[in-house]
């Protein structure tokens, strides 16, 4: 029998607001246990939540970035369940009136993965197990989250990874979260079921919770598909349950079963009044969105005529793209600017995170000035590279690093003189050149570069040599 | 009726006596009578003397408010920084919040002197205050009877002159009904008029804090001090009441007073007679009586018990023994600890309402109970809106009965719930209502009359209550014991 995969993903993303969703406590990651807390986020008796407007705005921003419809009227619900990290015994979330609905993310293939809804909610605290005791740290309690629920449109582990990757990229781009899967600011729950090819009905699904890397999404799905296929082929049936993926052993296994099926007894939170987001506000947020990453990629390739590989190296990182475009605004050329970024600057950045952060000592303007020197051939590429490296290390401008006499460049007379010296000193190479062995000219360059301290333009030198030899 | 706050304020401002002296009088009265009345469950005498000293300084400086230096009490579900706040429940045993409620913050700023926290039904669930883990307070008017509930301790303390005034909370009648049982005044303000920040929640969409006092003017003074929008309570609202005390003109001419027969069905004939006598007094003084219908009234009780219990089941989930309050001593897992802590910590009535609320929110029952109750709540609101398009106020009994005898065995829980019929519709609609003493029944127990108004029409109902108080014979009178200055 042949099976096909049906998958939907629920993604939790921590919003990068400065304060929590219902109080003024900081959302900063870390901190000594229970120091980022107040009566509200620890659920003290008598405390009341106040909805943070910024959270609503960030969620609308997220929704608009993935083509969602924004519900202008919305409310918060209580999701009741008992767990020590949840100090009120209910999570304030949204049930039947989510802020955003009906969006999508387009994959490279052109296939769209539907987004059912995006809603806002509060994060829970954390249990810490130490020396045989269990402690609770409520610092994370009340940190704002959005939950992004996809339609079951995903049909392969590769599509799942691509969906999550694109979602991460878009959310970082619009600035609502750093989406660090390792730190838990983005977490994916993957729902997987199989059905016979040709059938319409969904099979029983399992949910693999809290996957914390893009690669593990793919690996966990392979493992789960294999497990489900084995069961179905042996004539068994799938049990609806929650799974855990262990990346060390690459194994998937069911989590401890709860005794009762979950009944969250959702109802509207009476402490938070229904809230309205004016259409003008939605429009304002929409117009403040930056160019979205995949639109940018298309523009880089089609309009800037960048090679796709180079464009892909840059568009992913919002700060890189801003730096690049800043240099272009200074009048720098696309080609030289992109080559220096992906060459010299990237050689200083070893990880994805470095590129994401893109903390450089120089401004786009300073960079643009250097690129222009290269564009105007005042400096050659090699010199531009070494100057850029010094700029990156010191934060100085090109003008401060390149001496006046260096910038004055090399006179045609000097260059012709050095070319003649090179011809005189290398009769064998001259013979080779005359015999049509073009590579022999490199022998000449050694002398010229030495004399010019690396500043000579080799193309110009070549034409002078050919002229002298003709 | 004695206008205690005004009288005491005059003495304090004139320097005739100091707040410390006055506070000591009240402490003495509490020490003498509380053993019997059981109004106070936590006393704060040391802090009281300290605040009284500060109040005396404020009074000397000259710009002190009418409440400055006056000893008072708070119901045990209103949070006070560093002072026990236990909702009269074992589960909050030893709980001292590290924050003040909004109302206490305001009163403190006014120089109020807190004598202690008063008795109540556990988590404000009840009509007799007998579900308190500290035992029931007794009705000073007749100690064989209950004070009513759930703010029974406040009512008893104010009635017995063991506090000049107090704040209670009213979810389904918990200010008005004990005020009526003890023969004093109780005001349940409009939902949103007073911040709920720091009021330990029972039914969040119904709860409201308000004053219990000896006179209407006192109620107006206290309400004036605690009202107002608070950025920590999203359900609180700003409303410009103007000068509430100047609004007490006793002028009721042209006021349209609605009387709905549904409120009087099955009530004691003595009580009905007294309240109709009051209605006639209004009519004689130029008010117009309008007979109205309130058919949804009979639905108010089930709606109230479904919504209040649903909210309570969620609000009370946090008492798990992890962060504060009672924790069981032996357990073998976190789940076991939570289970045992809650089983030991909550009393029967609280457990009953948590179970009821959990049930009505459960999947499969939600639509039939909770959702339906919300729909009917809207219908009730609509009926009140229609009435207030025709009337300025409604008059009704506060309760269908006067104070129950202690340990009233005849009543099943449901029978007790039925006694809330006159007060719960007001909470459902979120409108204000004041209960004023209106004579006595054959047993000599005080009767309460409710004057109900539109949202934010506290000024109207206070003035009507003031008119009645000033123009009727005071058949209930002041309690003989306690502080008599």
Quick tags:
heterodimer, A: 470 residues, alpha+beta, Arc Repressor Mutant, subunit A, 3 domains, nine-stranded mixed β-sheet, three-stranded antiparallel β-sheet, 17 helices, 16 strands, B: alpha/beta, Amidase signature (AS) enzymes, 15 helices, 11 strands
Task: Provide structural commentary.
The complex is a heterodimer of chains A (470) and B (485). With 470 residues, chain A is of the alpha+beta class. Chain A folds into 3 domains: 3-281, no CATH class; 291-407, no CATH class; 412-469, Arc Repressor Mutant, subunit A (Orthogonal Bundle), CATH 1.10.10. Chain A has helices at 53-65, 157-173, 214-233, 279-288, 293-302, 308-315, 318-329, 334-345, 352-357, 364-375, 381-394, 398-401, 404-407, 412-425, 427-434, 441-452, 458-469, and strands spanning 3-14, 69-70, 73-74, 77-80, 90-93, 100-106, 112-122, 126-130, 133-137, 144-150, 186-196, 206-211, 242-246, 251-254, 267-268, 275-276. In chain A, a hairpin with a 5-residue loop joins strand 6 (100-106) and strand 7. By secondary structure, chain B is an alpha/beta fold. Chain B has a domain at 4-251 and 456-471: Amidase signature (AS) enzymes (Alpha-Beta Complex), CATH 3.90.1300. In chain B, helix 8 (269-284) links the parallel strand 7 (256-260) and strand 8 (288-292). In chain B, helix 5 (152-159) runs parallel beside helix 6 and helix 7 (216-226) packs antiparallel against helix 15 (458-471). Chain B starts with a helix and ends in a 14-residue tail after the last helix. Chains A and B meet through loops of A and helix 9 of B.
